[in-house]
Specification:
The protein is an alpha/beta fold. The protein has two domains: 56 residues, no CATH class; 272 residues, TIM Barrel, CATH 3.20.20. It contains eleven helices and twelve strands. It has an eight-stranded parallel beta sheet with strand order 10-9-8-7-6-5-12-11. Strands 1, 2, 3 and 4 form a four-stranded antiparallel beta sheet that branches. Strand 2 and strand 3 form a beta hairpin. Helix 5 packs parallel to helix 6 and helix 10 crosses helix 11.
Length: 329
């Protein structure tokens, strides 16, 4: 049986509300693994797809900010691909976190293990030790913990973190699912292929967009079956995690399909190598223009959360974008 996927074509204030608003769609592209079957009116989208596409995303209402939300990245590592060592000292990390929040970040994503291509796994004890000096200074901030390991998740949640951001989609640590269920916290499930050590060694897909959609759909179903509330899940297509340039572009060009997962979408493309692939050899520290272009592309696709290194610049760009698209603000 041929499976059909329905990718909404976003419009300005006409058609059905997307994810409860503020975006809408009047038509959708019908996709199969054989290719596109053209466009249909939103009213002709099958009931199950229409329900997932239009269903409100209640967890976004927790944040008293306009969409898309900005999530600031704080890496407490000496070897992250973009800012390794910059926030290695606890005082620097705390100051940067507070500055990001003041500049408009709705969330601060704190991680102590590098997951750049080729990075080895960090022992749990080392990850905990890197994070421990931060918790008192981060008190009161809306923190998510970027980790694959349940002991680190537990320590962060004990310290006040509100979200678990797991690049393995709760697949790395067998105890992670039960922990998230027990704590009742929000979880970000990110698509990946392989581990950080191996993910960029010849990644392969039959159809990157549909393969990622199917994989995230299965992980969301597994999370719900495991006891996680559907409204406590965020999906991340995992730009750069086991993907070549063509795979990343297929995801970026088809991003609106992911709204069919029925959960908020997070896009993390800030400073990634695809910018250099597209714009010539650009050093990491010079990728702000490309990062902003990707954030605005995500905004145009209705992505609800942008995970970025450059918070003030992204917040400014999105403020101007909203003014240019009042029907979507």
């Amino acid at each position: 049986m041929v499976r059909r996927y329905y990718r909404p074509i976003l419009s300005e204030g006409e058609g059905l509300p997307l994810a409860g608003g503020p975006f809408s769609f009047a038509r959708a592209e019908v996709l199969t693994r054989a290719g596109s079957e053209g466009l249909v009116d939103a009213a002709d989208v099958p009931d199950d797809w229409r329900e997932r596409l239009t269903r409100p995303r209640p967890l976004l209402a927790r944040f008293d900010q306009q969409l898309p939300l900005v999530m600031g990245i704080i890496n407490i590592t000496p070897d992250s691909f973009s800012d390794g060592g910059r926030h290695d000292a606890p005082d620097a990390a705390i100051a940067a976190s507070r500055a990001m929040h003041a500049a408009g970040a709705a969330l601060i994503d704190v991680g102590a293990e590098s997951t750049r291509p080729g990075a080895p796994e960090l022992p749990v004890a080392d990850e905990l030790a890197r994070l421990a000096p931060l918790w008192a200074g981060l008190a009161g901030l809306p923190v998510s913990i970027d980790t694959r390991k349940s002991p680190v998740m537990a320590a962060a949640l004990d310290a006040g973190a509100m979200i678990v951001n797991d690049v393995s989609a709760l697949g790395h640590d067998p105890a992670a699912m039960a922990l998230v269920v027990a704590r009742g916290c929000t979880v970000i499930l990110m698509h990946h292929q392989g581990t950080p050590e191996t993910m960029q060694i010849a990644p392969q897909y039959d159809n990157a967009l549909l393969d990622v959609f199917d994989w995230l759909e299965r992980r969301i179903a597994a999370a719900v079956a495991g006891g996680i509330a559907p409204d406590a899940i965020i999906a991340d297509p995992g730009i750069g995690f086991g993907k070549g340039l063509s795979h990343n572009l297929a995801l970026l060009q088809g991003l609106t399909l992911l709204h069919g997962l029925g959960v908020p979408i997070l896009l993390g493309a800030s400073r990634k190598s695809l910018i250099s692939n597209l714009a010539g050899e650009v050093p990491v520290e010079q990728r702000l223009p490309g990062s902003l272009a990707l954030a605005l592309a995500g905004a145009d696709a209705g992505v609800q959360i942008m995970r970025v290194h450059d918070v003030p610049e992204t917040a400014q760009a999105l403020a101007v974008w909203r003014a240019c698209h009042p029907a979507r603000a």
